[in-house]
Each structure stands twice: as C-alpha cells, then as structure tokens.
User: Which sequence fits this backbone?
C-alpha cells in the first residue's frame, strides 16, 4: 500500500527510484534505503511476528541491535531488515514466527 | 539522619552476593522466618549468574565424590516444587524442563569412557542411578537431526534445563516481594566479627547482622579468611554462542547444545584458564561452533546473533564448599560452580541448615579442609 505510510520522505538530491516488492505489493524506494525502511515506506510497519507470542513487531532501533525488524528477504529468513540495502526487484516478506531449520545437507543441497 | 540510616542498616542475616546462589539461599532463609538483606556489589561484579548455560544437570556429576552426586540429584528432584513456587509467587515461568538430557560423543573412546564413569557412579549409588548408553540410531530417536559423526550418547532421565535469566529475575522478585532487601551497596570490603554478630563495611556504610552468609562467587576468596573460612577459588572461562531463532527441533538439552524456550540455539561448554578475563575469542567461538555443527550439521546454516564469556567459580576439585565457621559462629560459606542445578538445594536444605544449624546433608564432604595438606 504505497502512499499509506505515516513516514514522510525528506528532500533528496537524487531522483532515482527502484522497485521492490513488500508482501507481494510493488513499492518505489530510493537506492540506499534499508529493507526495513522499504517496509515502513510501504505503510506496513509490522516486520515480523514474535516467535514466542505470535504478536506483531515493528522495526525499532533501525541500527542492528534490537532484532525487531526480521524479514524474509529473497527467500532468506530472519534477516535484519535495517542492515540490508534494497536492490532492484528485491522480494521482502514478513518473518512469520521462527523459520523451520531445514537440513540442507540431508537434502543434498550444497551448504 | 545518621541515626535513621544506621538503624536501617541492620538485618538478622546478611548475604554477601546477590546472584543465583545468594538469592536461592535468601529465599530459603525467608521461608525460615529470617529478615534477610543481600549486599550486592553491583554491575561491575563478575556476574556468573548472568552468563551461565542453564542446565539442570545430573549425569556424571560427582563421579569422584558420591556425596556430590547425592546432593545434585536431590536438588534436581526439588526443582519442580521451587519452579512452581516461583511461578505462583511472581507469575514468571522459568521454563524448567526435566525430561532427560543427552551427552553426545564424537568418538567411540569418549563414549566408552563416559559409560565406564556412569557405571561406576551407578555402582556407588547401589544400582539406583538411571542412565543409558545410546548408539547413533538410538540418539536419533530423541534427536533425529544428530549428525553421522555422532558415535552415540549417554542419556540420563534426570537431566533438564531452564532459562537462567528468568530464574534470576524470578528469585529476585520473590525475594523482594517477601520483604527482602537488596542493596547494591558496592563491594563489601571488610567483615569484622563482633562479640555478637558481624559488621560489614561497604561503600554506603556499615551493616550489622547476627549471621552472615558468603555467596559472593569469586569474591568469596577475599571475604572467607575474614571470618575464619577458606575459599580457594579460581575462575574458569566458558564462552557461549546464541543463534537466530528457529522452530523447535532440539527437544532435549545436551551437554554442549540446547534450544531455549525462546527458540534460539545456545552453544557452549568451552573451558579456559585465563584469569579474570570474561571476554570472548574468535578461536574458541569457532571451536565450539565447529563441534556443535559436527553434532548437528543443520546448525551450519544458522547465523550467530550473540556471544559472551563468563567465569565459572571453581574449587580445586570442582565441588562446592558448604561450611559454617567454627572460629566465628554465625558465618557461613556457600560457594559452587553449579548455581542453576543446585538452586533448589540452596533454597531448601542448605538454607534450612543455616537457619537452624541442624541438617540432614552430608556436609562434611563439602568442608574446605579437603584442600589442606
């Protein structure tokens, strides 16, 4: 839901935009934005649900400390969204609880 | 003002040190009707209680001292009752789980040595010491993700684990709710035995008490001689790693790896003699991570999110000292490495012993005279 965000962009020297998807919805973001910022820009502040209580959680510290902004980015779970810069076409999804740990070795996938 | 604060600085009993040991003993003393104050050094202290692994562990403990095996097992049996009391009194679930634990081995030699040790302990316990040697196939009945390098494990149904930080919080909260005082007074610099009772010098002033219990971890080294006791303790560093959260797959604690109630995986069991340095090193973190991934190859894909070091409080033989001062009656030393496992023992029989000076425990075995010669 681009445009529904409560966050306002500051004036910015460059006019570049790239497109990512947040929960399947296309969102226009600036190169250099973090994935967590893309989530906030999309007006979808809930980054994840708690692995313990299931409650929704939103990006908080935005500097790599609090682990509240865990996202699934391009299929990789539990990524700190504030520590990853957006890339064109990036697929950003919420982290729903704790991911299942698959035994990639047992499945014959190279580690 | 002087008079008021002086009057406030008295207690039936002062505990020096507000970690897991001091708080557990403190709760048990309150249960015995004593007015208890804990003098705690503050956050510059070494804080073993904030860095430990959280096992409530039985198997293999006391192989060279059967009385230690006895009190360890007694504490494990008393734990459910204490956990319930903490839950009822504070609403805090300490995540106690005692469904058994496994000690995984990566070599046949290590596995056979452990089996021999546990057989000896079983014999010492008159046959009543439950454990089982498992091969890899049997290990996988408990933990399907055990890797092919695992030769087997020893299993003990009396082992378990809990969340040590929640435990610390629950003990603190219940102690305070029951009228206990915790003074972050700074380091107790001097204990002076008086005609009756003791005077404890702290940066915030002197405290007076009838009885004093030393539960200051490595700090007991300097305090014990002041009340006619001896605490020949040395630090031993353990480093711990925490991974990102994943769906529960490890349903039993192991000696090296456990999954917490919050779904992180905790990896530990390094042992280093590095003095009072509680830091971390890449080398040791890599070693314990490598061992854990040999045990559970699927951990290879996991990211680490935290690491820390903490100092174990070790006597020369690794066993506790539980001792009353004969020179200065009313002074006691309670020091051990396993503050989690022994927590229910400390809240129960050890606190009862201090409160009443009578006991049913084999305390002679834990006297520091065993280090003299």
Assistant:
């Amino acid at each position: 839901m681009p445009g529904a965000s409560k966050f306002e962009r500051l004036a910015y020297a460059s006019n570049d935009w790239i497109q990512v998807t947040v929960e399947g919805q296309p969102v226009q973001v600036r190169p250099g934005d973090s994935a967590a910022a893309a989530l906030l820009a999309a007006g979808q502040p809930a980054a994840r649900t708690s692995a313990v209580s299931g409650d929704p959680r939103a990006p908080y510290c935005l500097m790599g400390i609090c682990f509240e902004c865990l996202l699934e980015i391009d299929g990789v779970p539990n990524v700190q969204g504030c520590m990853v810069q957006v890339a064109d076409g990036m697929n950003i999804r919420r982290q729903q609880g704790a991911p299942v740990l698959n035994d990639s070795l047992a499945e014959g996938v190279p580690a | 003002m002087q008079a008021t604060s002086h009057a406030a600085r008295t207690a039936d009993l002062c505990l020096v040190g507000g970690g897991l040991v001091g708080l557990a003993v403190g709760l048990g003393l309150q249960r015995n009707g004593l007015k208890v104050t804990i003098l705690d050094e503050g956050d510059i202290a070494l804080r073993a209680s904030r860095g430990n692994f959280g096992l409530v562990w039985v198997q293999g403990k006391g192989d060279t001292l059967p009385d230690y095996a006895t009190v360890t097992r007694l504490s494990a049996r008393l734990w459910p009752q204490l956990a319930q009391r903490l839950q009822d009194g504070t609403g805090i679930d300490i995540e106690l789980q005692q469904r058994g634990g496994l000690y995984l081995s990566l070599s046949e030699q290590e596995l056979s040595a452990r089996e021999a040790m546990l057989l000896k302990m079983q014999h010492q316990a008159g046959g009543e010491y439950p454990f089982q040697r498992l091969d890899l196939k049997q290990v996988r009945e408990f933990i399907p993700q055990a890797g092919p390098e695992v030769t087997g494990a020893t299993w003990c149904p009396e082992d378990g684990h809990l969340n040590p930080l929640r435990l610390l919080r629950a003990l603190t909260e219940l102690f305070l709710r029951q009228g206990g005082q915790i003074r972050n007074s700074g380091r107790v610099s001097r204990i002076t035995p008086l005609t009756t009772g003791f005077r404890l010098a702290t940066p915030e002033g002197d405290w007076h008490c009838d009885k004093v219990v030393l539960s200051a971890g490595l700090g007991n080294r300097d305090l014990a001689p002041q009340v006619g006791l001896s605490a020949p303790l040395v630090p031993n560093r353990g480093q711990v790693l925490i991974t990102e959260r994943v769906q529960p797959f490890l349903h039993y604690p192991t000696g090296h790896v456990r999954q917490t109630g919050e779904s992180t995986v905790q990896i530990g069991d390094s042992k280093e003699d590095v003095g009072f340095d509680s830091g971390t090193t890449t080398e040791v973190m890599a070693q314990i991570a490598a061992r854990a991934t040999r045990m559970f190859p699927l951990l290879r894909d996991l990211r680490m999110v935290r690491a820390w070091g903490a100092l174990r409080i070790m006597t020369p033989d690794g066993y506790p000292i539980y001792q009353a001062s004969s020179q200065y009656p009313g002074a006691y030393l309670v020091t051990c490495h396993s503050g989690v496992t022994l927590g229910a023992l400390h809240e129960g029989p050890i606190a009862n012993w201090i409160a009443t000076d009578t006991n049913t425990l084999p305390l002679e075995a834990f006297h520091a005279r065993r280090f003299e010669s």
Q: What stands out?
A: Residues 323 and 364 of chain B are 8 Å apart (CA to CA).
